[in-house]
TrEMBL record:
Reactions the enzyme catalyzes: 3-deoxy-alpha-D-manno-2-octulosonate-8-phosphate + H2O = 3-deoxy-alpha-D-manno-oct-2-ulosonate + phosphate
Protein name (Swiss-Prot/TrEMBL): 3-deoxy-D-manno-octulosonate 8-phosphate phosphatase KdsC
Key word Hydrolase present: yes
Cofactors (names): Mg(2+)
CDD domains documented for this protein: HAD_KDO-like
EC top class named in words: hydrolase
Family annotation (InterPro entries): CMP-NeuNAc_synthase, HAD-like_sf, HAD-SF_hydro_IIIA, HAD_sf, KdsC_fam
MF terms (GO), sorted A to Z: hydrolase activity
NCBIfam families for the chain: HAD-SF-IIIA (TIGR01662), KdsC-phosphatas (TIGR01670)
Keywords attached to this entry: Hydrolase, Lipopolysaccharide biosynthesis, Magnesium, Metal-binding
Protein biosynthesis as UniProt keyword: no
Amino acid sequence: MSWINPLPEALQQRAARVKLVVFDVDGVLTNGTLTYSADGELVKHFNVKDGVGIKLLDSFGIATAIISAKSSDALARRARDLGIRHFYPGSKDKWPCLEAMMQPLGITPDEVCYVGDDVIDLKVMTRVGFAVAPADAFWMVQERAEYVTQAAGGCGVAREVADLVLGSRMFLEDAYIKAMLPEFEVQK
């Protein structure tokens, strides 16, 4: 059975132009639950499938970034483990972070995919070429997104986005050949 890209042709063309995928964290890469241990340490739960998707994007020359309003050691560790070089924690106004990132990369807003789940993300989502929201994103964000994932936050959103972007350029099965190679899991 072969994977079929669920995007309409016009959105597939927009996804094919993407050179940078930016992820919010809470509600996108996690389910939005904040758990504190008895000593006050913040614990976050990330989906390993999302990690494969993010690494696949990078392996095909598509830059990835995290811009999050919150900052935590757990988030910094996850970004480091995935080799995400563009990491902006504690960013309440996300647009200036994205602007600062695009210029040195030579990327324009229409070449950016942004994945967000709440109103803090709207300023960015309305200015980029491909705006995506998780299935359980706030209704206002879903209304303004070009695509709403089947996955809920923390349950494979990044993997689904990676499949859409890569699947708009190539047979997705061919992209996953890289994920099967032993060197795929080696950290950069």
